[in-house]
Amino acid sequence: MMEVLKTQHTQQGRGGATIQVELRDLQSGLKSTERFRTSEAIEKIYVETKGYTFLYIEGNTVFLMESDTFEQVEVSKDMFGNGAAYLTDGMALTGQVADGKLLAVSVPNRVTCKVIEAEPSFKGQTATPVYKRAVLENGQKIMVPTFVDAEDLIVVNTIDNSYVSRAKA
């Protein structure tokens, strides 16, 4: 099963139109590019979105619970990519299911994390935006504004590991 990431429709002179499609294999995660004529038929599958709750990690296996049926599900840690570092007990996750099989699971786009270590800031660095290194409680290293200190709670974008804002208390 493949997921469509991007499409581009092209018409070249008198020839038939083609559609260039960037695909990702849902099993292996590998990306590929294919060209299809507009007359070709492709089988479409219907994907259902379900809610899951993170339970725990054991080795390379992540244990989840389906929110509706309370059924426990095991998936590979690789399915989360870089988002695996942000998994916390009881976190609500979104999964895509087709034909009764869990194809993909994603963490929320924004999570609140605690800064455990941050470089010291110096006065006079406010004329232009200046960033410094910080280490989060999950071990991730990100760049944060100079006013962020250790023990602060911040909101982090899990897609690109970037600082979003201070967390509301």
Automatic annotation (TrEMBL):
SUPFAM superfamilies: Nucleic acid-binding proteins, Translation proteins SH3-like domain. GO terms for molecular function: translation elongation factor activity. It comes from the Eukaryota. Residues 111-166 form the Elongation factor P C-terminal domain. PANTHER family: ELONGATION FACTOR P (PTHR30053), TRANSLATION ELONGATION FACTOR KOW-LIKE DOMAIN-CONTAINING PROTEIN (PTHR30053:SF14). Belongs to the elongation factor P family. One of its GO terms (cellular component) is cytosol. This is Elongation factor P. InterPro entries: Elong-fact-P_C, NA-bd_OB-fold, Rib_uL2_dom2, Transl_elong_fac_P/YeiP, Transl_elong_KOW-like, Transl_elong_P/YeiP_cen, Translation_prot_SH3-like_sf. It comes from Ceratopteris richardii (Triangle waterfern). Residues 49-103 form the Translation elongation factor P/YeiP central domain. GO terms for biological process: peptide biosynthetic process.
